[in-house]
Amino acid sequence: MPKEHFDEYQPLLIKDKKRPKLPNKSLLLAACAACIGGTFQYGYNVSVINAPTVYVQTFINQTWRERYQTEISENILTLLWSTIVSVFTLGGFIGATVGGTLSVKLGRKGTLLTNNIFALAAALLLGLSYPTGFFELLIIGRLLTGINAGIGICVQPLYLGEIAPTAFRGVMGMGTSVFITGGILTGQVIGLKELLGGEEYWPILLSTTCIPAILQLLVLPWFPESPRYLLIDKGDEDGCKIALKQLHGTDGCNGELEDIEKERDNLASFNARKPWELFTDRTVRWQLLTIIVLNVAQQLNGINAIYFYADYVFKQSGIPDDKIPYVTVGTGACECITALTCGMLIESLGRKVLITGGYTLMSICCILFTLTLTFQDASPVVPYMSMACISGFILSFGLGPGGVTNILTTELFTQTARPAAYMISGSVNWLSFFFIGLVFPFIVIRLQHYCFLVFLAVCSSVAIYIILVVPETKNKTFLEIQSEFQSSNNRKACSVEGAGANLLSTST
Q1: Which of 230, 328, 351, 506 could connect to 240 by a Cys-Cys bridge, CB 3.0–4.6 Å?
Q2: C-beta of residue 173 within 8 angstroms of C-beta of residue 343
Q3: Whole-angstrom Cα distance, residue 49 to residue 451?
Q4: Residue 164: is its pLDDT beyond 70?
């Protein structure tokens, strides 16, 4: 090319090499509006129930005495309290099983808005439990908060993944993790005695779950439905274009519209898939196995055990009992900061590096934590080493598995299969949550601190699986990711057929 022509086109060449612009302000606000009534509610309701434990048990005891003129037995009290806590996971499972179907019927945005009915009803029942003297309302209210969380954690990542441009899909997807950890931290802070953690305020504390619901009902209607849902599921091309312009701006909508049209043309003869259809489809078997493995591991990797042992380690370190809630808030803040850090790194390092690195670091922390707990009384320094292991484990979880898992569920499937995939992954996640809550106390009793060797096996196995099976999805369209998995399946099938042919030839 002549020099003068090269100089003429130099600005265009430089423009192509520029990094993508920052996400549109409207896109970020839409994500926040979806998250505040979605996964924020999940994190908030997981943590907020811890602060009023003693007060709720006192209320149950008092109510039982007034009704039956007798003291409640310790076993029945424990059963009722554990039911109030664990029924949340049952509601989450119910929500996950219906969330995908609702997202197809009502749309992603429509489902998120409708889901607030469960949160508002739950807040009403939880708030009325004390003045009416019915502790049963706590059980029903917690069930409804679980349903709300189950639908939210299923549909909100779906919405975020579909409204985000390809270049920022990872950053937007991290909103799920950031708002979960933000919800946990908010619940811990609101539950402090200086705020609503006093005995007289616990019904108000539990009913504050209505605040995120009200905020979402006020804000989310101002933002559009998922453009992919509008074009691919509903065939509304004009609505899709309007939504893209609002979310991405006039300059950024053309490329995304082209990608959505390609995916629509590729899926023209397909309808929304049912969960059981994915289990019989050999073309998505590795994607399906991957999300099942990752969602099981997210609950069985030991993060719940770390929080269980945290109070013990804090006491061993000499922290007074009345100061432990503030230290716990500090651990919640660490996890929230790590989720934000993961959001900043995910588009530069990629999904595979973060989630593999996270599980690898968690494996190392399991080994170190087992050693420090074994020699807890050997030196005054050892409890502080245990605290460092707790912080390291929480940070490693937030850096990779806590944030990337939901993003991969979005990216490994195309439009027609994605809602069903979220129903499966959500159901597996909630069942694993229930399983670890049921089995974990027995694991601790039998193995004590050696239980972390079990979690070591889980974390290291998942890290190896990701390295061998899961491709990097950064900056790839949904069709490109699907094509990469299909190519991998074809190579594996060819290698199996080749091995079979060689076996036949040697036997003849």
Answers
A1: 230
A2: no
A3: 26
A4: yes
238-295 pLDDT, tens per residue?
Answer: 888 888 888 887 776 777 788 888 877 776 656 667 888 888 888 888 889 999 999 8
- Count the helix, strand and coil residues of the chain and give each as a percent rounded to the nearest 5: 85, 0, 15
* HEC sequence for 18-45: CCCCCCCHHHHHHHHHHHHCCHHHHHHH
pTM: 0.81
Q: How far apart are CA 152 and CA 115, in angstroms?
A: 7
Q: What backbone phi and psi angles, to 5 degrees, belong to 23?
A: -60, 150
Torsion angle defined by CA atoms of residues 497, 500, 506 and 508, in that order, rounded to the nearest 10 degrees: -100
Tell me the per-residue pLDDT of 465-504, one tens digit each, with 9 for 90 and over.
999 888 888 877 777 777 777 776 555 545 544 544 453 4
User: Is the CATH number of domain 22-223 1.20.1250.20?
Assistant: yes
Domain boundaries, the chain: 22-223, 275-485
Q: Which residues have CB under 8 Å from 101's CB, separation 6+?
A: 419, 423
No. of helices (H) and no. of strands (E), the chain: 22, 0
* CATH superfamily, region 275-485: MFS general substrate transporter like domains (1.20.1250.20)
